[in-house]
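Our preliminary data section would be incomplete without showing what the modeling component actually yields. Below, a chain of 279 amino acids is followed by its predicted structure, encoded as C-alpha cells that our downstream tools consume directly.
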Amino acid sequence: MPVPGGYYIYSTNRRDINVPMLFSPDLEQFTLLGDAMPTLPHWAQPGLTWAPEVTKVHGQYRLYFTARLKRSRTQVIGVAVSDQPQGPFVATRQPFIQMREFGGAIDPAVLNAPDGREYVYWKNDGNAVGQPTYLWGAALSLDGLTLAGTPRKLLAATESWEHDLVEAPQVVEHQGTYHLLYSCADFGDESYAVGHASSSSPLGPFRKTREAPILASYGQVAGPGHSHAFQTASGHWHLAYHGWEAGSCGYPRGRRSLYLSPLQFSGRQATVHVSAHAH
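Predicted structure:
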C-alpha cells in the first residue's frame, strides 16, 4: 500500500503473526514491523489468516482478509478497522462475506473508482467442496463494512491454461478501462499464472484479452501469482506477486518469495516486464 514516504506490505500469516506487516521506503529495503492485526476475531481459527488487503476509506483504513471459521473448514472474508495503516486493526464481530453455499469466500481486493465509489472483488472457494470457482464483485457501502449491492459473477475458468480454477482477482482503472488481473491453476506448482480481462465498467462484463497468461513461470521463478498492481510515487505501475524457486514448488520444501515487475497498460491490454530479482 503506497503512503507518503514509502510502502506498506501485508502478507499471509506466519506461525507467530496473524498479518505480517513490512515497510519499505524504496521497494528495495524492507523492515518487518510486526502484526497489523494482533487479535483475531472470535470466529476465526488461529494460524489461517491469508491474503490481506488494506485500503483507505474516508480517512480510516480497512483490512480485508481471509480466515477459516472455527469448527469448520470453510474459509470466509473478514474486515478490520484502524485509524492508521500500520494498525492495530480491529476486526468486526462477524465475517464480511461468507458464501458458504458456494464453498466459502477468499481473496478480497478493493477498487477505489475514479467517481469515488468503492468495489470489492473475491473468489468463491468452490474447489474446496468440489464446485466451480468464479470471480465476484460488488459495490461497497460508504463505510466499507458491508456490501451495497448484489454480488455479480464476473469471470470463470474457460481456458486450458487456467486448469479449471480462477482466484485472487484485482481490478484497477487506467484511462477509462477497468483491468481485471487474476490468478489461475494450482498455486502449489509451476502451472500457477496470472490472467487478464478488461471492461469499461467496474463490474463488467469483463472479456479476457489474451489466449495465454500475462505472467507465467520464467527463469528460476515458478508459478508466479496472487498479484497486486499498484502505482509508485512517480506514477509508474508495478505488479507485486509471489513465486516459487524453480524445482522447489509447493510446501513443505518450497518457499514463496516476493517479486516486483514493471506493469504497462495500453488500451485494453496489459503487459508485465518480468524480472528475476526476489525481495
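The chain is about 0% helix and 45% strand. The radius of gyration is 17 Å. Preliminary results of this kind motivate Aim 1 of the renewal.
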